[in-house]
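Summary: Need help interpreting a holo structure output

Steps to reproduce:
1. Submit the protein chain below together with the SMILES for zinc ion.
2. Request a joint structure prediction with the ligand placed.
3. Inspect the C-alpha cell block that comes back.

Expected: a single structure record containing both the chain and the bound molecule.
Actual: see attached output.

Input attached:
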Amino acid sequence: MEPGRQGTVRVEGLPDPEPRDGELLVQGLALGVCGTDKEIVRGEYGWAPPGRDRLVLGHESLGRVLEAPQGSGFSAGDLVAGVVRRPDPEPCGACAHAEWDMCRNGRYTERGIKEVDGYGSERWTVPPAYAVRVADHLGLAGVLTEPTSVVAKAWEQVQRVGERAWFAPERVLVTGAGPIGLLAAMIGVQRGLEVHVLDRVTDGPKPGLVEQLGATYHSEPIDKALDAVNPDVVIEGTGVPDLVFDAIAGTSSYGIVCLTGVSSRGRTVQVDGGGLNRELVLENDAIVGSVNANLRHYRAAADALAAADPDWLRGLVTTRIPLDDAPSAFDRPPGDEVKVVIALTDDLP
Ligand SMILES: [Zn+2]
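--- attached output ---
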C-alpha cells in the first residue's frame, strides 16, 4: 500500500526478511483486519517507512516461530503475535518507562501503520522483546491478541481510575458488539462483573456471541439500556458521538466511562455543556480515553485469551480471506461479520 493514495493496495513479492540482532524469524499465519487498516487503504491514514513509498500493511498478527536464537525465550514452533508500537527514539518520559502506548511526542512508530512494515507477509521478523507467546490451543483465535491488548489496557485504565477511591464495580455496559466490544465483554465476565452489551443489530452472530458469554444483549436505544442497567462502568467502543455523550451522562454515581472508539471529525451533536459538567462534578464521574497497548497489556491479553473458551473466540473470526484476495478484505460492506482475517497460509491452525 502507498499510504495517502487510495487504490494502491496489492499483493506483491518482496525478498524474505533476514533476522538480525537476535530477532525471531516467523511464518505469518493470519492477519486481522480492523478499521485502521481500512482507513489506510482508503488513503486517509498511514505513513511509509522513511525513503520509501510503500508500506506492508497489517498490525493484528499471528505467526509461528521458524527460527529463534538461543536465550530468546522462544522456540521454533511457538505461536506468537507481534507488538505494534515501538518507542520513539528520543525517548519521551513515557517511552523511557516502557509506557510507549502513552508516548508524549508522537515520534513513536507502528508496524503496518506508521513508518515500519507491518505483519501482512508470509515471513516476518520481530525482536523477542516485541513478541508475545500465544497459547497453542487457541490456534487461529490467537490472531485476536491485538485487538485484545487494546481492551486489556482499557480495563487496566478503568481499574486504576476506579482505585482513586473504594472501587467495587458490579455492572458494566459495553457499547458496540464488534471485536473490541465483544472482547471487552469477555474480560468483564472474567472479572466477575454483570456484563451488558449494546448494539443496533438484532440478527447475525452478535446477540448469540454475547449470550454465550453469559452476558446480556441489548438493542434498545441507549437511554433505555442505561436506565435498565445503571452501569458502574461503561466501555464505549463505537465512537458514535450521540452514544458517547449519552454514556457519559448515564453512568451511576462515581461512574467511569472508558472511551475506545475513534470518531470521525466533523460529526456535531448538541450537548448541554453546563448540565454535563454539573453531572460529572456532582457524581464524581470520570472519563478516560484509551488507545493502543504496551507489553504489559499484550501479556494480559494473551492470558485473557488463554483463559477464554476457544470455541467462542473462534466464533469471532467470521470471515477468512485467502492471501490472493487480500485487497478485498479492506472494503467489505458492513454486515454480520465480526473479525475478518486474511489467511497468509493454506494451513491455518
Ligand atoms: Zn515517546
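--- end attachment ---

Reviewer comment: Residues 87-88, 91-92, 94-95, 100, 103-105, 108 surround zinc ion (CB under 6 Å). The first strand starts at residue 24 and ends at 33.
Status: needs-info
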